[in-house]
Structures are given as C-alpha cells and as structure tokens.
Amino acid sequence: MRGKLRATEPERLLEHISLLVETYDTKRFFIVDDLFSQQRDETIRLCRMLADYQFRLKNLTTKPQNKHVKKDFRKLRNVSNKQILD
Asked: What pTM value is reported for the model?
C-alpha cells in the first residue's frame, strides 16, 4: 500500500447504510474490505453507531407507511455523534 490510509468517516458509512435501509428496505449487509478494522477506534465507533441505529429503527417501525414515519427515519440520520455514543 502506498501513502496514507484514507478511510471513510463512520458518519458517512451510516448515511449510506441508512439510505439503503430506508429507501430499499435492505435487511443485511456484508462488508468486504481488507482494511475495515485497520483503524480500530473508528471501526468500533461505526459498530456502536450501527447498533444504535438498529435499536432506534426497531423501536420506530420496520417499514415507513406514511409521511410522519418517513420523517422520523430521516431524523435518525441527523442525530449527532455525541447523542449516538452516549
């Protein structure tokens, strides 16, 4: 590998995943990345964010049926990191 490792921010990855979940009702993901755990702290932070997102998703509903629920799904993406990690 040449140069410095350039990893995507956990917030950005969560944004992509939440978009797939909310738009296409995606249920499972498989991460194929040789360097996924290279930056351990960031990997743990992403996993915690995903666990929190999954918990919040289960407590809302599994499928958005109306405008109000769709707005709630969008709000999940706008939660700050501090709120997620607390």
From this structure: 0.65
